[in-house]
Amino acid sequence: MCQKPIKPGKKYALPFFLVLALLTAVSLIVPLRPTFSYSEKRELTKFPAFSVEALLSGEYFDDITLWFSDTFPGREQWLDVSQSMASLHGYSKIAIAGALDEMEVIPSSPEPETPAAVSAATEAREEAARSETADAGASDVTEASGSAGAPEIDVNEIYLGKAIQIGDAGYNQLSISTAMSDKYAKTISAFADRMAQEGIRVISAPAPTAIGIMVDDSYLTQLRCTPQDEMLDYMHGQMSDNVLKVDTVRKLQAHNGEYIYYRTDHHWSALGAYYAYQALCEAAGMEPVALEDMEYKNQGEMIGSIYGKVPYPKRLKKDELECWIPQGNITMYLSETTFSEFPMIRDVSNEKSEGKYCAFLAADAPIVHIVNDDIPDGPNCLVVKDSFGNCYVPYLSQNYHNVYAIDYRKYWKYSMADFARKFNIDDVIIAPYMIATQATDANEWFQAHFR
Questions:
Q1: Mind listing the pLDDT tens digit for each residue in 224-275?
Q2: Cβ atoms < 10 Å from Cβ of 67
Q3: Higher pLDDT pick, 156 / 36
Q4: In terms of DSSP H, where are the helices of 197-293?
Q5: Residue 316: helix, strand or coil by DSSP?
């Protein structure tokens, strides 16, 4: 006896098409569509502007398709489900976003360069810069910040390195470029040699990144990362004796059992920055302020820059924004044009967890000026820094009467030598994070401004 084939019933098809129609209707409701991805830390695609050219070429409808898929309602939840499903295929303690860059080997016996006289070309550039400053009639820091001249470095252009996830923490790959290290060392050495003739001390205190401090050396070769103590030794070994060299790496490695780096962000924590400050004080013959002499403030949960770049962000351990606020009669001023007062460390405890690192030093202000009137006879310093310096610079207010901090990624017109002379600077502290010392664009800025 033949059995009739079973045909799908209409009663099953109808609910399917109703659900499909409902999802389609929901997806077309524009207010429900997200505009920012917190897991990927980026703005989502915007609806394209209409133009006849885009319509005729077909790009207009392609862009609408991209907007439609990139801003689908519930996108973050779908990504979470996707990551959870992917993790079922197997779990590895180490996960890498993309292919790692090749690793260069440090020469076994670097030969320090003999400090040389400034070249005629460099002298000509410096003389031209002095003439330009005199012509501009710069009479204060506001004018020194300028509004025209060499282009600024975009914050996002400094290469961060491939994202690496090890367990519950994220890192950036970092390997040495001996060519960039040599260029950096030569630039700082020439600057220090000139400043030494004027009684101004130049201090090299680069900020290490987490992978060189928190990850055991046995992993680093496999991850194509250069041990940062070796990298720092190589750079400092190439520098002039007129540079005061701070071993920030080994100081932080001695504390790597503590919460000195964030897990969802590429920066060190305020505690990590404190230990680097301690290393600076020890090298420079100063007394560091004690942690217990500052006001402690925990500003709650924080999510940082690495969160959206690692393969499994939900596995990262949550961060907290801890602050130690220096005490005293301290005022901070900032502005690109007209200086105004601003909190050195502001309260962000009630703000969203994304981007809380902006609490320190007005985020990435091009220049800040901190004055501690409790030490009116103290020395003055100029710090050349990036965002790593934001939670580091406030501690310096305990040792210097005037602290000037310039973010090299922002627009700046005048040379550091001119600035140091004008504002009676005693110490120029050069403190980029280690990746920047290996970056072409940062080195070009250093070469142009340390003249």
A1: 999 999 999 999 999 999 999 999 999 999 999 999 999 999 999 999 999 9
A2: 16
A3: 36
A4: 211-214, 217-220, 228-237, 248-253, 270-284
A5: coil
Which three-class secondary structure state does DSSP give residue 91? coil
pLDDT category at 324 given cuts 50, 70, 90 is very high
Least confident of 112-121, 180-189, 363-372, 395-404: 112-121
Mutual angle of helices 178-196 and 440-449, in 10-degree steps: 20
User: Regarding predicted confidence, which is higher, 198 or 307?
Assistant: 198
| 240-277 core/surface letters (b: 16 or more CB in 10 A; e: else) | bebbbbbbbbebbbeebeeebbbbbbbbbbbbbbbbbb
Question: At residue 133, does pLDDT exceed 80?
Answer: no
From CA 383, how far away is CA 406, in angstroms rounded?
6
C-alpha distances out from residue 131 to 126, 135, 255, 301, 408, Å: 9, 6, 48, 50, 22
Token representation of residue 379: 């020395």
- Of 182, 162, 186, nearest to 173 (Cα)? 162
What's the mean per-residue pLDDT of the chain? 79
How is 345-406 classified by DSSP, letter by letter? B---TTS-SBTGGGGBTTTT-SEEEEEETT-TTS-EEEEEE-GGGGGTHHHHTTT-SEEEEE
**Euclidean distance between CA atoms 345 and 301, whole angstroms:** 16
Q: Which of 334, 401, 399 is nearest to 365 (CA)?
A: 334
Rounded to an integer, what is the distance from CA 151 to the centroid of its chain? 19
Give CA–CA dist 35/70, Å, rounded.
9
* Residues 333/340, Cβ–Cβ less than 8 Å: yes
